[in-house]
Amino acid sequence: MPLKELQYKGMTLKAGAFEVIGTGRFLVSVGITRGSGMSGQSRARFFEPPSPNGLFSDPDVGLESALAFGRAIIDGNVAGLTVDDL
Asked: In the chain, helix, strand, coil percent, each to 5?
């Protein structure tokens, strides 16, 4: 399972791409945690970025899309989604 992690504005974003068995296509998700998550007291929220038909044909493209979506949520640019409670 391909994974990518980055720090952005005091948050940790972790994206994962999960292959739908036998299709060569990937479902991606992004988890956002305030800080590094090392304190043992952190909370995370998980989001599924929009994609054509819900799947990506390239896991790296999916991961980059998930991370961009996570940054947009943190920036307050996605209506109805927030990380204010983290």
From this structure: 20, 35, 40
Look-up of token digits 């739908």? 20
- How confident is the prediction along the chain (86 residues), in pLDDT tens digits per residue? 789 999 999 999 999 999 999 999 999 999 999 865 555 566 889 998 888 788 999 999 999 999 999 999 999 999 999 998 88
CA–CA separation, 47 and 4 (whole Å): 15
Contacts of 65 by beta carbon, 8 Å cutoff, 6+ apart: 28, 49, 51, 56
